[in-house]
Structures are given as structure tokens and as C-alpha cells.
Write a structure and sequence with these properties.
The chain is mainly alpha-helical. It has helices at 2-9, 12-15, 20-36, 39-47, 49-73, 78-88, 95-102, 107-133, 141-165, 167-174, 177-195, 197-202, 204-228, 233-244, 248-258, 266-294.
């Protein structure tokens, strides 16, 4: 929130970061994620197919359609609509693992859900964005696919390999990766908000309303999907957070790289990073307090 305010009041604080640095920053974040993954995180995907499957279904079947519905009902401008649908089509973000921990949910499950949705996003994000947003602006799904390979799959694979073959150095590096990831996502969000200051201030009501609707719906639909599948209380909370918190950094990177410099497309993605953390943190506080008397 502070970064968002500062970016709009004093854009010069973040404009130095530069458009070209966004993809590099996201790559470093994904590298850090890869270094924390263990064999059991991959195995759990196959051991808990019901939970993982419901999470992935909610992420890619419900969220993009919900984003497209919001864009249609709110009559969003074309570029804003594409940005909203793009971030809705992204996988769960790594910040969700921290919020699940704070909410006393199932952290190991959250990590596996993030992993499964991130891998699925290599194909699903370009495809769904093209399907739901292609009538607003020309979208090249193959270009989005190549972008995801470069900033997500490659660094994630390198991180997993590093952890597998050089565990000691990976443990040392991963001790600092959360802080580095937080700083980088703040710089990415700050740069986009600063760069799009005029457009954001002109359209702040509809932009904020659409992004809030997207994430409120994401948390609710994730919880509802988990309830539909008869999951436990902790699993429902974990799924809600995982679906409600998108990888906004990926959406911002793709929007910045594949749409024009003056485009409004990255703005909903950057604002999404602020909103989903606020809503997720509020839920974490409520659920954590509810868990204490029961324990």
C-alpha cells in the first residue's frame, strides 16, 4: 500500500527500475521459488489429486471466466479488460504460501497447489487469455507462451536443479530469497503504477472496483469449490487463499512485454498485487483468531 501511494505521489522513486527489469525480476523470484521446492512437493500433487485438482480447476476454469464477466458487466475499456483477464488467467502467487501460513492453513498443500498451477499456466494462461480477451485486442498466444517459458519455467527449473544437486548453497541462497522476492515485486508494482500514473488516476474508480471484484470473487469461489468437493476446513481456507491470490508479477511482466508502452494493460495486474495481499491478510487474521480457541 505504501509503495502504491508513493508511486502515484512521487513516480520518480520507481521509474528508474525500467520496463526491461520486470522480466528479470520475475525470473529471480521464480528462481527463489524453485530453490525452496522439495521432492515431496512434487509427489504430493499425485498423492492428493482431489484437492490439487479442485484447486487447479478453480484457478483456470473459474477465475478467467469470472474476470471476463466482470469486464463485460462493468464495460471496462479494452486495454483494462485485457489486463484484468490476463491476471485472472495467471497461476497462484508465491505470496499465497505466506498468507496460508499466517492463517494456520496447510502450507505444504499451498506450495504444491502453487507448483501445480504454475506448471499448468505455461499452456493455460496464453490459451485462456487469447480465448477471453482476444476480441478486445489482438493477442498472440505463442508469444505469451514463449514469455512464460523464459521468465517462469526456465528459472524455476534452474532453481529445482540447484536445490537437487547443490543443496548446501541452495539453502544459503534461499535464506535470502524471500526478502529479495518481496523487494523485487514491490519495485515491479511501484514501477508500473508510477509509469501509468495519469491513466490510473483518470480511471481509478472503475479500475479499483474491477480488481477488488476479481479478488473477492476469487477467494469466495475458491472456498466454494473446496466446499463442493467436501474438503476439510483447513483445506477450504488454503484453497480460498490460493485461488484468490494470483501471480500478479507474471501478469505484469507479460502485459508490459507484449503490449504497447502507453498501454493500460499492466495497470490491473500491478494493482492486483496490492489488493490480493490486503484481502488475503485480512482473511488470515480472521481465520487465525478463529483457530486459536479451537486449538
Amino acid at each position: 500500500v505504501l509503495v502504491g501511494i508513493l508511486a502515484l505521489v512521487e513516480p520518480r522513486c520507481f521509474l528508474w527500475f525500467g520496463k526491461e527489469s520486470i522480466g528479470v525480476g520475475l525470473g529471480i523470484i521464480m528462481l527463489g521459488m524453485g530453490m525452496t521446492l522439495k521432492t515431496e512437493d512434487f509427489v504430493r500433487v499425485w498423492k492428493e489429486p482431489k484437492v490439487i485438482g479442485s484447486g487447479v480447476c478453480a484457478q483456470f476454469l473459474i477465475m478467467p471466466a469470472w474476470g471476463a464477466l466482470i469486464a463485460y458487466l462493468m464495460k471496462l475499456p479494452a486495454e483494462m479488460a485485457v489486463g484484468l483477464i490476463l491476471v485472472a488467467s495467471c497461476p497462484g502467487g508465491t505470496a499465497s504460501n505466506v498468507v496460508v501460513f499466517l492463517a494456520r492453513g496447510k502450507v505444504a498443500l499451498s506450495v504444491s497447489l502453487t507448483l501445480a498451477s504454475t506448471i499448468a499456466a505455461i499452456w493455460m494462461t496464453p490459451l485462456l487469455t487469447s480465448w477471453y480477451a482476444g476480441h478486445y485486442l489482438p493477442i498472440d498466444p505463442w508469444a505469451l507462451f514463449r514469455g512464460i517459458l523464459l521468465v517462469v519455467l526456465l528459472p524455476l527449473t534452474v532453481g529445482v536443479g540447484w536445490n537437487r544437486f547443490f543443496p548446501k548453497s541452495a539453502r544459503k541462497a534461499s535464506a535470502y530469497s524471500p526478502l529479495v522476492s518481496v523487494l523485487l515485486i514491490l519495485l515491479i508494482v511501484g514501477f508500473v503504477l508510477a509509469d501509468k500514473k495519469e491513466l490510473i488516476l483518470e480511471n481509478w474508480e472503475i479500475l479499483t472496483g474491477s480488481v477488488l471484484a476479481l479478488h473477492f470473487g476469487g477467494f469466495s469461489l475458491g472456498y466454494g469449490m473446496a466446499a463442493l468437493f467436501g474438503l476439510t476446513r483447513d483445506e477450504k481456507r488454503t484453497l480460498s487463499i490460493e485461488v484468490g491470490m494470483q501471480n500478479s508479477g507474471l501478469g505484469t511482466s507479460l502485459a508490459t512485454d507484449h503490449f504497447g508502452k502507453t498501454s493500460m494493460v499492466p495497470a490491473p495486474c500491478a494493482l492486483s498485487a496490492v489488493m490480493h495481499c490486503l484481502i488475503g491478510s485480512f482473511l488470515a487474521i480472521r481465520w487465525r483468531r478463529n483457530s486459536e480457541p479451537e486449538e
